[in-house]
Amino acid sequence: MNGKDKGKVLEIENLNVYYGAIQALHGISFYVNKGEIVTLIGANGAGKTTTLRTVSGLQRPRPGVVRFLGADITHVKPHQIVKEGIVHVPEGRRIFSALTVKENLEMGAFIRTDKRSIQESMEQVFDHFPRLKERLHQLGGTLSGGEQQMLAIGRALMSKPKLLLLDEPSMGLAPILVEEIFKILQNINAQGVSVLLVEQNALMALSIADRGYVLETGFINIQGPAKELLTNPRVKAAYLGGS
Amino acid sequence: MWQKLKSKITGMTIVMWTIGIVTLALVVYGSAVTLISGKYTLKQWIDFLIFGLAQGGIYALIALGYTQVYGVLKMINFAHSEVFMSGPMIGYFVATDLYHFNYIDTHPYLSILIVLIVAMFVSMSVAVILERIAYRPLRNAPRLVPLITAIGASFFLQYFFKGLFGSNIKVYPDWKVFLGKWVVFGQPILKIQIIVFFAAVLLMAGLFSFMQRTKTGKAIRAVSEDKDAAALMGIDVDSTISFSFALGGMMAGAGGVFYALMYKQVFFLMGFVPGIKAFTAAVLGGIGNVPGAMLGGLFLGLFEAIGPNLFLDGLGIPSPYQLKDVIAFSVLVLVLIFRPTGILGERLAKRA
Ligand SMILES: Nc1ncnc2c1ncn2[C@@H]1O[C@H](COP(=O)(O)OP(=O)(O)OP(=O)(O)O)[C@@H](O)[C@H]1O
Ligand SMILES: [Mg+2]
Predict the structure, then answer these.
(1) Are strands A65-68 and B170-171 parallel, antiparallel or unpaired?
(2) What is the pTM of this model?
(3) Which residues, at least 6 apart from B210, have a Cβ–Cβ distance to it below 8 Å?
């Protein structure tokens, strides 16, 4: 299977995360193999965002372990985790609205210094998202929702990640645009970037993923190959509109 | 139609517009009477103008520090007055040493450069240490906590410098090259004021292009907007915040030396009034906005220098210049009423 079993890129072990007294994650464990697209699906408040924020160091588990390419990164600071090769496209896109599209992309390449190879990455981003090139000198805040999502993904790619974390990229977008973006995610994955995709749109997510996990109020209750989850009666009933 | 319009006009808008119109009428009337009476000559108006520009340049340099810090931390650094004071205070000792070795007379430009660098370095260090010790541990505390800490830090620094160097007023040595006047278009103008104005503009232009062009400048803007998102780009948020304190401190230190050159004296409380004025300027321009702080500073300086004589003299007020602070703060109040975001503040509404 085109090199998708070369070992684990991300490994989460017994992750417990609290907000004050509220426990958002109850000892979840999962992994992403090199080259895979893995999706984490679940309803509002299931803990999907919390999981991604913990992987990228914005939230601390107690206890719990996050391993990236075999190394324990549980206590590494967020900006250093980017250097390790994980990049996180946050929920709601969070692009810098007062910076131009170009400046947003430059910030994505913050950890890199070689100007020429940064320029090459920018060209690659434009290959994925030609619309960003047309809007290069426009302020991020003036982009449409879909364009902002493209910028958020493009900005993340500028760090040359090994693992891409995406938090609900389909949120608020028209179905046709969601399809376009998911196709691009598959292209990005085909170029060797492993993907951990958080989604409420379970059908779309499972249709491009290799494997999936279902998160319910802080517990992973169902997991398996995406194809199996698509036919799993419980998943169908709760997340695929019962059809 | 009329109903719709009526529902939009509340008691508050009527009060606001009344205040606005009355103020405007007084200003126009006062100015007209002053100008018609011909009490001040053209030369005097030019003097006021140049003084206003120089003073405004200093306000602007200080205001940049308030705005930089507000940008990244959304807090008012009330100890910034003392950041401003600390540079020229230490600079004073360097200046007097240079003076005693007769270096100021023999190498005036090199010596002012030395004093400037020392002062900028001291103010920068004070700002950075302040952030590290007093503000960073409170990053996630309720907003009132760092504010109170800032006021405490302000007193601490004042009395720290008083304790170290005494409370007497320290007189800066003269730079002979900056004394006297230049004749520009037939008008004699104080050299020092011109120099201060242009030096301030130069520094501001430097800071502005730093913020626009360099990676660190862009990172500061990114952190100002969204710390988590910036961290997810690999930006070290803590050191970026330190850096913006450093930049603000440097500008304030330079402003402090210019202040010392214009007024010839420094002492431990010297930061108080210019600090509050510069804060006003930062709010006027739109706090958090770098060009806004520059504009606000210059605007306030000019307003203070020209305003009292122009608006108040014609209203028959006996010694209008005594009221320049009243003017400065009235401007602040009016701006806050009619344009709470300041002149350039937050033009771009954030999208979710
Ligand atoms: N900053 C916070 N403070 C307190 N509780 C929080 C905070 N953030 C999240 N939570 C709680 O943690 C739980 C998980 O939230 P999380 O945002 O991870 O869910 P999610 O699966 O991403 O939901 P959504 O699909 O709505 O984005 C929720 O019960 C939420 O209320
Ligand atoms: Mg979420």
Answers:
(1) unpaired
(2) 0.89
(3) B216, B217, B247
Q: What are phi and psi of A10, to 5 degrees?
A: -130, 135
Report the CATH number at residue B230. Answer: 1.10.3470
| Residue matched to tokens 């419980």 | A234
Alpha-carbon distances of B253 from A41, A113, A236, B113, B335, rounded to whole Å? 54, 32, 66, 12, 28
- Contact residues, chain A, for B234 at CB < 8 Å: 79-80, 82-83, 110-111, 159
CB-based contacts of A82, cutoff 8 Å, min separation 6? A56, A110, A111, A159, A161, B232, B233, B234
Interface ipTM = 0.92
User: A205 is written with which tokens?
Assistant: 């997510």
Q: Cβ–Cβ of A148/B351 closer than 8 Å?
A: yes
Please state, in angstroms and rounded to a whole number, the distance separating the CA atoms of residues B322 and B269. 20
How many separate domains does chain B show? 1
**Pair B33, B315: CB distance under 8 Å:** yes
**Alpha carbon separation from B64 to B89, B124, B135, B293 (Å, rounded):** 20, 13, 18, 6
Q: Which residues line ion ligand 2, judged by CB < 5 Å?
A: A 49, 91
* Cα–Cα nearest to B223, from B247, B200, B206: B247
Domain ranges, residue B143: 40-338
Q: For ligand 1, is residue A46 a contact (CB within 6 Å)?
A: yes
Residue with the bigger pLDDT between B191 and B338: it is B191
Span A210-234, pLDDT tens digits: 999 999 999 999 999 999 999 988 8
Beta carbons of B201 and B60 less than 8 angstroms apart: no
